[in-house]
Amino acid sequence: MSLTLSLDFQYKTTIEKLWSALTDSSMLAKWVHNIHSGQAMDNNFEAVVGHRFQFRTQPTEWWNGIIEGEVLLVEAPHKLSYTWESGEKHTITWSLQDLGEGTVNLHLEQTGISNEQALAGAKYGWGKWCATLEQLF
Q1: Whole-number Å distance between alpha carbons of 103 and 95
Q2: pLDDT (0 to 100) of residue 40
Q3: In sequence order, what are the residues at sequence separation of 6 or more whose Cβ sits closer than 8 angstroms to the Cβ of residue 75?
Q4: Of the candidates 94, 116, 129, 130, which lies 20 to 30 Å from 22 by C-alpha distance?
């Protein structure tokens, strides 16, 4: 059985700035960090279909510190999808919608989650990251 995480976040910003925060490697490093240590995760992300990338952080006894992925879809500035692999292989899809009056909705869908514990962990992690993302605007 495969579970899906679906979350929505609203930000006071422009769709272009939010798109940049999701697709620019240096911007990603400002909000995607190791949840446990707070350390930034270096990455080589590029919003180019077929591009293989990694997020890297300090390894632990439970994890090698590497998230691998491949960009699957880029429809700037409205939709971005990529694989996210660290033990399990998931698909992350971001959808951006300009709600007007300086507000943008960011919808996250993560598919391929194997169990309720992993679902809870993903919800916690993305919640923390997306709260940090909000501080960029």
Answers
A1: 14
A2: 77
A3: none
A4: 116
Domain ranges of the chain: 3-134
* Mean pLDDT of successive 10-residue stretches along the chain, which has 137 residues: 94 97 93 72 95 91 90 98 93 98 97 95 92 90
Backbone angles phi and psi of 32, in degrees to 5: -95, 110
Which among 71, 19, 78, 18 has a CA at the least distance from the CA of 43? 71
Name the CATH superfamily for 3-134. Answer: START domain (3.30.530.20)
Whether the CA torsion 48, 20, 53, 91 is positive or negative: it is negative
- Tokens describing residue 93: 């899809």
Sheet holding 42-43, edge to edge: 3-12, 103-113, 88-100, 79-86, 66-75, 52-56, 42-43
